[in-house]
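call fold target=Pseudouridine synthase
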Amino acid sequence: MPMLEYNPPRDPWVDIVYEDEHLLAVNKPSGLLSVPGRAPEHYDSMWSRLLETYPEIQVVHRLDMCTSGLMLLAKNKPAESALKKQFQYRLTHKVYYARVWGRVEEDEGVVELPLIADWPNRPRQKVCFEDGKPSKTLFQVVQREEKTTMVRLLPITGRSHQLRVHMQALGHPIVGDEFYSQGEAFLFSDRLELHAAELSFYHPDSHDLRSIFVPCDFYLEAEARIFHYFDPVRQLPDYKTLPRP
């Protein structure tokens, strides 16, 4: 499905929440591409804006255009390589907040549904038990509202649109989602209410475990949870266990 109209927010132009000589973290607004699209009019992106000041900047992971929140970028090639490996081998942890349609009855749970691209309806994804890739999301209810539920999400895998499809599959699409919500659920918000609030990773130079948090503009009570989240069995492995190429 082509992008009908692209009018990314311009204020602030860039919101840097952490920076050192190896990397920086930004709070990407909803409506801004992570990297340029194919068309010239879709060049404006988080990466292209940072490129104006940081000519060596490299993207190591992406957020959907409509998702807001933390993006980590590398300022040199060694940092880029180290960070990309961490995402590849799932040494990073991410916590999202989302407002979903309806009342989620379970206080917490796990969604394990395989996902695959819905090719006739790209960029949509879909659940497919025959050919889909394994996908796992942990969820936790943080607040039940009149028509919606605020949930905290921890993706164990990182498939495209994973959180959006998994919530829809539970019968609770994220409000404002142009691809996976309909009717009142879609009209409830003028944006996709999905925010990448927290990211943990090993610093590419010191190897120390770091965690960065940015507040959520549609849920002001959001808090940092990375070191005491709801799956105590899963632990971050030591950086030294990272597989070598």
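return ok
Confidence is low (pLDDT under 50) at residues 227-240. DSSP finds four helices and twelve strands in the chain.
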